[in-house]
What does this fold into?
Amino acid sequence: MSLIEYDAIVIGAGVAGLTAGTLLAEKGKKVAIVTAGEPTACLSTGCIDFCSNMDNPEEAIAALPAHHPFHLVTKTQIHEAFYDFKRRMAGAGLSYTGDTNRNRHVLSAIGTFKTTCLTPETMQASPQNEQENIHIITFSGLKDFYPGYIISRLKNASFSTYDAGISTTMGLASLFEDENFLETFLLWMEKQNIRENKIAFPAVLGLESASAVKKTIEHRLERPVFEIPTIPPSMPGRRLFNCLKDGFRRAGGVIYWDWQATGAEKSGRLIEAVITGSHGRPNSLNAKAFILAAGSFVGGGLRAGHSNIVENIFDLPVFTPGKREEWFEQDYFSVNHRIGRAGIIVDESFRPVEGPWDNLYACGAILAHVEALKNGCGHGFALATGRAAAESLLEAGR
Amino acid sequence: MIKTDVIIIGGGATGCGIARDLALRGIPHCLIEKGDYAAGATGACHGLLHSGGRYVISDPVSARECFDENMILRRIGEKCVENTGGLFVRLPGDSKIYRERFLRSCAEIGIPTEVISSSRALELVPSLNPEIEEAIRVPDCSIDPFRLCMLNMKTSELKGGLSFTRHRVIDILKSHGRCTGVKAIDTGTGEVKEIYGNIIVNATGAWADRIAQLAGGEVPLTLSKGSLVITNHRLTNMVINRLRPASDGDIIVPNEAVCLAGTTSLAVEDPDKIAILPVEVDTIIGEAGRMIPHFNHTRIIRAFSGVRPLLKSQKLDSRESSRGFQIIDHQNGMYSIVGGKLTTFRLMAEKMVDAIMNAFSLKKECETAQKPLDGQEELSGYPLSKRLADMKNIVCECELVTRQDVEKIIEQTQTRHVGDISHRTRLGMGPCQGGFCTFRALGIMHDLEILSPGQSVGSLRDFLQRRFRGIRHALWGDQLREEQLVEYIYLGILALGKRSEPH
It folds into this structure.
């Protein structure tokens, strides 16, 4: 038993966990997040995919299968979750653009268009069709960005290469935080005699001050600038995470970083504490209620064995989509792989069904039947269910 | 039109070995391969350079051939053979009678053995099951079949031999009942080439009957599918065999940073339609796990199958079929060489070329057993650290392949296939199975203007689909986690799944 008892402990520092935690902290609750480390949000494009398989995400929700957990969230909760998110991000200096009733496109690093709902400021000017006239800046030796992919699809695109002497996106992002580098780079840019309407960059325009860097380049070159998300490690994903994390801390939340939850102390119908491995010895952290937002397989919330799927912290029953040989389709691109349905089934108050716990909630990618890739439910789903789970917890404590 | 003396169809170990032998004996030749070198059974085996122990009871002639060839190959091919040594381990319940027969037969044939205690075996290979009764040490080695084929072809290239990969033979040209050449189609461009020669060698393994039929002949074969799994780690530094009659999952071979375990044996009809069954994966892991328990917990990064072309025999179990090889003279200018195994490829090539020399009434002795393989001086050898020449430009972090390595292969081969780069550099053979580096390799092809606009995304799609065939049945634990991440990268971040795009 720990000396401190929190009102709520959230497991997982991804978009769902940070959204739930921040709302609780803003409502005056004493909240802690325990996390094994960086969330998968750091690997993401930073875009908020809500329901990207149709033009209108709100209508797309209505068309989802009956057991999809998106149906457990009300329209008001979605609107409030998105409103709060945009407000918080604008406050943190990284505005997001977009509406919940209209999807938009983001040019990908292979020249396809990714459909998403909200985009960070640095991708706001991303082209919406293949005809747009763009000039791409790339960096010699950069191993995760090849403009050739895009040039082959966008007929009105061209590129130039700058030698910054660095081959990683992370290294370039840190260079862009340096004013002297930026000035040298801008002088080079001005000499390029760019004629296209827009200028594209791989997503390396800084980590902390990306919006400002983008604006500086736009101002000097007198045309819109946008970023193209890259494969991990992804700067826009990391910026999103940093802003949400800082927002949670500002609201009074505490983060136990590098404390991997490994089990729970239980009593009757209540979870009393989570047990965490941390710096050499196990610790337990007590709270009145818990929110499980540990993600799916990549995040570490679920783990597949040879023939079963388990949730390791609370040992909750996991919906398992058939035998192992049925988890994946033959067609890699089908997005119908049944493994996408694995997860925790929750009731309308986001409590795991079949589990005996009164004070445990779950949200985000760990939920069953999400099928994130098929339905395009990414961070938007995490925002909505994170908020809904937190509201449910508040409701129960009233 | 291309004219040569000998046309070799098939770029597996046998075909490449024949090309080298012909080159050393000064015979003009042209090799045609429908995929890349080592694309068939050669590249889909354990990579075990047999000591002969495995066949010592069932097929003593093959066993002796294996031992002799093992000794030759470790001498001539030090950069593609790793002298690991091997153990035959006896588990509780395994027959003691088999052990006696094994030792006696090895002694008769001349394969050196050393019986060692379980504690000594555990000193040599700490990951072994501590319950083993004892082990018998044999001179097994690990061999890189891709590198082996490339090095054999290097000699052919140096002596002016021709070769066409990604060319499928669609017809055999005949005149007055004799084969005079082949028609081959470039699978990339669709261009058809006519190649004329005096002798055609059919070294197409599981596809031998089909090629023979194009010339009006036949090759009676039994096709047996063998599946294997690859682990994320090198769990043993020695080859581990089970001391019992050949059965499923009884061989584990270390190869560079990984281990290969297998095999299974199931009769198949069509070598182009083979699929791995989940039960095969489970069987191999279960059996390999009895020898090295960690197999049950380690990451399996891929499963794959190859088709053994075995000479037809009366016996039902294909493991009991003869592993010996045979040269069939179709009496029309075509020879088929079938059966055999990777370990004896050089001997097969020697016998084949002897027959060709005889047909041409030429006399020059085979030199392939004496001369070291050409091109080895450029190779790094085995320690991974030797590849770490340039930390800054690594494009495949799993196997430490640099951008320069990739550029070199692309410039040499003008290839548009990621697989060709993998076979020559090990790009994409590690835990992520090309998840990150394929995007990069194709990007580099773009930079070098090898890929024409629009080809890259198609290539990426094809690669991912083919890759998935191998990993689909080995997905659980951390490997499933890694796969979900790769899926997210390609279908989520890069939006490769969608076919329709805005205009």
